[in-house]
């Protein structure tokens, strides 16, 4: 990946010699002099993964929202302050400007023989769909049909339901139906995820479709069932070999951003929370040593939202913090297995039993972190974990174990917590939400009020208010 990013940086720095020709005053000297579909694709791909994985309090606080971690130096972000550091604006800008804009430009430049161009276009489209999926599940109504149009300075905010439905249609028509599995796409050195394996890209497309279908389960069960069945029939992830992930580089600045935040920065800003540590302790979860360090012979978490002293609690494990190459997944096999278990419980599908797929998911998560089948079997034999004896209904059983499995996957964990409502998370005492819960959405960036005020006001009215407590259309319970 470093080779591709360096090439991209060189292209960015291309300049022109001085001239007295007045026509050059109309040239945009900040754009690429020359570029390719590959360079733009590489840049957009990296920016997307980096933002989803980021943990800087200036850029991404999803791990704090779902109480995986809490803070030691500041307390604002763990109390859901999105505005002081313009966190909502950063998330919005990176996804629109650095990811979607470059994906769009890359798509306009695709080259190669017809089937290769088709595959490249489908991969880019898939990334665009995923990026919009992140935006719409973060904010609600967003610019979509008029977004990225240079001639439209004030794009309308499309309704979140309409966007979501269109994304599923695009996934079917422009991605899944278009892939030519006998041909390549981007070269293996550019395609940093699947190295031009189109079969794998199609599996990811179907797995994303499954995820999107299940997101509709409480708001439109009929459509959810149709989407879920079609996704599974077309072929979703069936093993950890299918995981959609990107590996970072060993050298700065292209390391995993967690390493940059926790090691290269020289700062000690985070500790795991009492919320997650206590649950894992009560279940004797074998992943504790993969997630946390010991403190005085035990695992001890800080209080969410309070000013915790770094030296008095467990820390983020060396496996996570001190690994510049740590991979960043956007979707994994165990997530698919949890989704299938839930779909069975809801009566959407009849593929095996919910218990079997739940067990597969838990086992896959433990093995993902380096655990063994023996550890997984022992853990699943715990009465508090075993599907037939664990506390609560299927939402609580699946929701709790999925939240544990999605540790360090802030955005995905936040989305699934909002959807399943488990485990029960209580907001910190000084939280900026007013309902004693973590946020249900991100607020709109303040800059939108300045630059696109009328359309933003319409969006506020459409979604029920620009508040963190406002539930999105799919979040019905």
TrEMBL record:
InterPro entries linked: SusD-like_2, TPR-like_helical_dom_sf
Name listed for the protein in its UniProt record: Lipoprotein
Organism, scientific name: Polaribacter irgensii 23-P
């Amino acid at each position: 990946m470093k080779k591709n990013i360096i090439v991209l940086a060189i292209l960015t720095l291309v300049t022109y010699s001085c001239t007295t020709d007045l026509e050059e005053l109309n040239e945009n000297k900040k754009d690429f002099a020359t570029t390719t579909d590959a360079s733009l694709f590489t840049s957009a791909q990296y920016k997307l993964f980096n933002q989803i994985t980021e943990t800087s309090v200036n850029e991404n606080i999803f791990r704090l929202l779902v109480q995986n971690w809490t803070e030691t130096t500041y307390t604002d972000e763990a109390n859901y302050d999105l505005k002081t550091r313009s966190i909502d604006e950063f998330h919005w800008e990176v996804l629109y400007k650095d990811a979607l804009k470059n994906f769009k430009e890359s798509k306009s430049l695709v080259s190669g023989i017809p089937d290769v161009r088709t595959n490249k276009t489908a991969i880019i489209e898939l990334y665009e769909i995923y990026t919009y999926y992140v935006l719409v599940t973060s904010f609600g109504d967003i610019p979509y049909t008029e977004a990225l149009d240079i001639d439209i300075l004030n794009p309308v905010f499309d309704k979140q339901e309409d966007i979501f439905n269109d994304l599923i249609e695009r996934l079917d028509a422009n991605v899944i139906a278009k892939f030519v599995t006998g041909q390549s796409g981007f070269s293996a050195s550019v395609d940093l995820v699947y190295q031009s394996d189109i079969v794998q890209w199609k599996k990811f497309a179907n797995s994303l479709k499954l995820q999107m279908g299940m997101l509709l389960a409480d708001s439109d069960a009929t459509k959810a069932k149709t989407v879920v069945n079609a996704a599974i029939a077309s072929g979703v992830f069936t093993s950890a070999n299918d995981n959609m992930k990107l590996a970072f580089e060993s050298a700065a600045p292209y390391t995993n951003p967690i390493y940059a935040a926790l090691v290269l920065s020289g700062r000690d800003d985070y500790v795991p929370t009492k919320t997650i540590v206590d649950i894992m302790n009560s279940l004797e979860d074998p992943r504790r040593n993969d997630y946390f360090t010991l403190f005085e012979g035990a695992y001890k978490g800080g209080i969410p939202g309070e000013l915790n002293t770094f030296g008095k609690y467990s820390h983020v494990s060396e496996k996570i913090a001190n690994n510049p190459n740590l991979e960043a997944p956007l979707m994994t096999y165990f997530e698919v297995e949890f989704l299938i278990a839930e779909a069975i419980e809801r009566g959407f599908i009849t593929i095996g039993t919910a218990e079997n797929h739940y067990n597969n998911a838990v086992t896959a998560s433990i093995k993902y972190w380096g655990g063994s089948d023996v550890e997984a079997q022992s853990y699943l034999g715990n009465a508090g974990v075993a599907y037939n004896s664990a506390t609560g209904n299927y939402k609580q059983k699946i929701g709790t174990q999925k939240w544990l499995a999605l540790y360090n996957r802030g955005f995905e964990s936040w989305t699934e917590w909002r959807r399943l409502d488990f485990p029960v998370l209580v907001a910190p005492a000084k939280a900026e939400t007013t309902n004693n819960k973590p946020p249900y959405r991100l607020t709109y960036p303040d800059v939108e009020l300045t630059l696109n005020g009328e359309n933003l006001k319409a969006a506020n009215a459409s979604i029920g208010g620009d508040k963190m407590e406002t539930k999105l259309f799919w979040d019905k319970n």
